[in-house]
Design brief:
Elements: H1 5-17, H2 20-27, H3 31-45, E1 50-53, E2 56-59, H4 61-84, E3 93-98, H5 103-117, E4 122-127, H6 130-139, E5 144-149, E6 164-172, E7 174-178, E8 188-190, H7 191-195, E9 198-201, E10 222-226, H8 230-238, E11 244-246, E12 258-264, E13 270-277, H9 284-304
Length: 305
């Protein structure tokens, strides 16, 4: 098979991004250039590598098989480049992904501890949804990711070999309300009381739920503000603009004027925070990052539990 490095990098990027358009933007190519690279790879492989669907593309069985080998080859070339330029394995780069609320406390504290103990390790981070982070782990553009899941806790994807999932802790979902106003001084609220409240939520997307609204509320929630950043959501709550959901792990970052309260009269909403590793063996640097994340997660579990 006559395959180029550019073609293999395009394969990895398209597989991770899920669309030709997103891959082209990430690589700085035109859409037609990415399409030509995919077509050339498919011709060289003698098989269709992607199935096209209205929302983008999805790897075929042959595409997943080629991707596994492409990731190994590209990682080996990157490692060779680091070695030739004086990089050391134990001080190598680590690529970390995380779900939105994890960056505010867990990730920031873990990176601070890592800088004290392993100042030469270079960590790059990326926030994303569970599907996008799982794809990045598969394509080798992330080494480890922090993911949140709700029962039943399934694997982030169904590909083989399975991703390695390490549960860290579980926490109950709460609702963030203003300390003044209707819920002043309250430790809990009922589902009926919050059903008609103005909500502050993340923009809805095809691959992620409407984060910020309590699951299963009767009727259609009144989403007054759409915001991705969780600290902005909490400051809007403090300003009396509405309410939003939040895990107790955010408590250290909660601004003045905000209180996290339980929701009564409905089933408790539990969330599990897990470390998810790529199937390939971890480097010494990645293990150091994982250790720092474990320590911070344990402290947060103790303080919020």
């Amino acid at each position: 098979m006559d395959m180029t490095l550019v073609g293999l990098r395009v394969l990895r990027e398209v597989a991770e991004r899920g669309t030709i358009t997103a891959a082209a933007e990430a690589l700085g190519y035109t859409q037609s250039a990415v399409s030509r690279q995919v077509a050339a790879l498919e011709q060289a492989a003698g098989a269709r590598l992607f199935d096209r669907h209205p929302g983008g593309v999805r790897l075929t069985t042959e595409g997943r098989a080629l991707l596994r080998h492409a990731v190994v080859a590209l990682d080996a070339l990157d490692a060779a480049d680091r070695e030739l330029h004086g990089g050391e394995a134990e001080d190598g780069p680590v690529r970390l992904g995380f779900f939105p609320t994890a960056g505010t406390v867990i990730v920031s504290r873990a990176l601070a501890a890592l800088r004290r103990e392993h100042p030469r390790i270079r960590v790059s981070t990326r926030e994303g949804t569970t599907p996008s982070l799982a794809r990045a782990l598969r394509t080798g553009t992330l080494d480890v990711a922090l993911l949140s899941s709700r029962p039943p806790h399934r694997s982030p994807d169904t590909d083989a070999p399975p991703l390695r999932v390490e549960p860290l802790f579980e926490t109950r979902l709460a609702v963030a309300v203003a300390t003044s106003g209707r819920f002043a001084g309250r430790d809990s609220v009922t589902a009926e009381e919050i059903a008609d409240e103005p909500w502050i939520a993340s923009p809805a997307a095809a691959e992620e739920p409407l984060l910020g609204v309590w699951p299963g509320l009767p009727g259609r929630p009144r989403v007054r503000h759409t915001v991705r950043d969780w600290l902005t959501k909490l400051h809007l709550v403090a300003a009396g603009a509405g309410v939003t959901t939040a895990p107790p792990a955010l408590l250290p970052a909660v601004p003045p004027g905000v209180r996290l309260v339980a929701v009564e009269g409905v089933a408790e909403e539990w969330r599990r925070v897990s470390l998810v590793h790529a199937p390939s063996p971890a480097t010494a640097s990645a293990n150091a990052v994982v250790h720092a994340l474990r320590q911070e997660a344990a402290e947060l579990a103790d303080s919020s539990g």
